[in-house]
Amino acid sequence: MIVTSARCLALNASFEPLTLVPVRRALRLVIDGKAVIVEAEEGRFVHSSHLTVPRPTVIRLAKFVHVPRKFRRQVTNTFLFARDHYSCQYCGRSGDVLRTREYLTRDHLVPISRGGTNEWTNVLTACSTCNTRKGNRLTHECGMEPLSMPREPHFVHLAWAVRRLSPIQAKYIRLFYGAQTLAEIRRW
Ligand SMILES: [Zn+2]
User: Fold this and answer.
1) Which tens digits make up the pLDDT trace of 58-73?
2) SS3 24
3) Ligand 1 centroid, distance to 139 Cα (angstroms)
């Protein structure tokens, strides 16, 4: 069986997995000579006016692209909630058992208004009820200790946990980061 992936995995020239891009964009990069096809879907081709190209599932950039660390470390709610397994770090309830009108939010251990930052070690997932209850206070002031202290996760775990990879694409994550990382991603 051929597993069709809607998106194409783009590797850096160093083989580091970078991101998933739409197939159309991947083809553009290949046609412009900016990337080469590493893996393509068997028997599937994309036709343009004067060109027939295999439908890529993995491409590799011709030139190494430097990705700034700052960008990689950005804490978006998507990644934050994934790190905390989509559950409130105060009451422990998971996002799918919250009541209507409750939702997951970003809580700051040290509130922004009191000098807190948006770094991994200061943010955690909280349900809206707990977040409101904690308000502007420090944990010891309100007696609400988080179930676990927030830590900076391995970027790779997050980056790939929230994506749907085909087995072929997953192979390249394993090649670059090792089987253990892939296994950890799969557990999420
Ligand atoms: Zn809660």
Assistant:
1) 999 999 988 765 555 6
2) helix
3) 14
CA of 157 to the centre of ligand 1 (A): 24
Rounded Cα distance between 145 and 172, Å, is: 40
Angle at 41 between CA 36 and CA 43, to 5 degrees: 115
The rounded Å distance from CA 184 to ligand 1 centre is 26
pTM above 0.85, yes or no: no
Helix axes 167-177, 179-187, angle to 10 degrees: 130
CA 117 to centroid of ligand 1, rounded, Å: 21
The CA 47 to ligand 1 mean position distance, Å, reads: 52
71-121 residue pLDDT tens:
556 788 988 998 898 999 999 999 999 999 999 999 999 999 999 999 999
- 178 — phi, psi (to 5°)? 100, 160
